[in-house]
Amino acid sequence: MRGDRLEGRNVVEEALVRCRRKVLRIWLDVGARVDDKLDGVLEMARAARVPVERVERARLDRMSVTGVHNGIIAEAEGLPQPSVKGAIADAGPDCCFVLVDEVQYEHNLGAILRSALGADVSAVIIPTERGKGLTPVVQRVSMGGAEAVPVIREGLSSALAQLQRAGVRILAADMDGVPVWDLDLTGPVAFVLGGEDKGVSEALRKRADAVVAIPLAGNLQSLNVSVSAAVLLFERVRQVRAAKLLAESDRA
Predict the structure, then answer these.
(1) Of the residues 51, 77, 103, which one is the last residue of a structural domain?
(2) What confidence category does residue 193 fall into, taking pLDDT thresholds of 50, 70 and 90?
(3) Exposed site from 4, 89, 178, 195, fewest CB < 10 Å?
(4) Torsion angle of alpha carbons 52, 54, 57, 62, nearest 10°?
(5) Cα distance between residue 87 and residue 89, in whole Å
(6) Which of 77, 105, 138 is the last residue of a domain?
(7) Which residues contact 81 (CB under 8 A, 6 or more apart)?
(8) 61 with 151, same domain?
(9) Are residues 73 and 88 in the same domain?
(10) pTM for the full model?
(11) pLDDT for 144-169, tens place per residue?
(12) Domain of 136?
């Protein structure tokens, strides 16, 4: 299992909290002011017997891959490598998946993972080789999303076939689709998002049960892929919540 470089207080804290992998060591800026967050990180490190070394900030600067370490860097084991089959087995009745094809900008994948965590997504699926994977920048930008939301690298066509066999509706995001608020997004669903330049490929679009769009004003042609993901995911959260409230009202 490959190792990972974690940079920044949030991602190091989330790795210690989530316990999906072992944090091996931590380097901390010798001049760092200990606030509540950092105190919590150090307490969890002590409890998990993770060695903490105080070093000069210049050394952290040299070690940093992302360029933004906020005074703390950790080395950790690689995250578990889940499968689509396993994610489907673990998912609940209102499961939600996000498939992202050929995202080239690390900040976009990181932001998608952050939204996925907030929207209770079961897994994010990316191609085996195309696009970015879980780089240090992706993990930092995800603000803990990568620690909680499984990231699966499998062929997207195979993943879609498995999801459809499991009864998950496939919704491809494209500007000529049905407005997102006119579609029922409750129940098991998977959103398919394209890369920054190409959008959803025709091959993946053909596998979708429907095409969903985010209507835009001002002659705007499209949104950033991570923004689109957030809009779709939280419209789904809104619909699921509304459906549950209606069901509770009917039972009262």
Answers:
(1) 77
(2) very high
(3) 89
(4) -60
(5) 5
(6) 77
(7) 1, 153
(8) no
(9) no
(10) 0.91
(11) 899 999 999 999 999 999 999 999 99
(12) 84-251
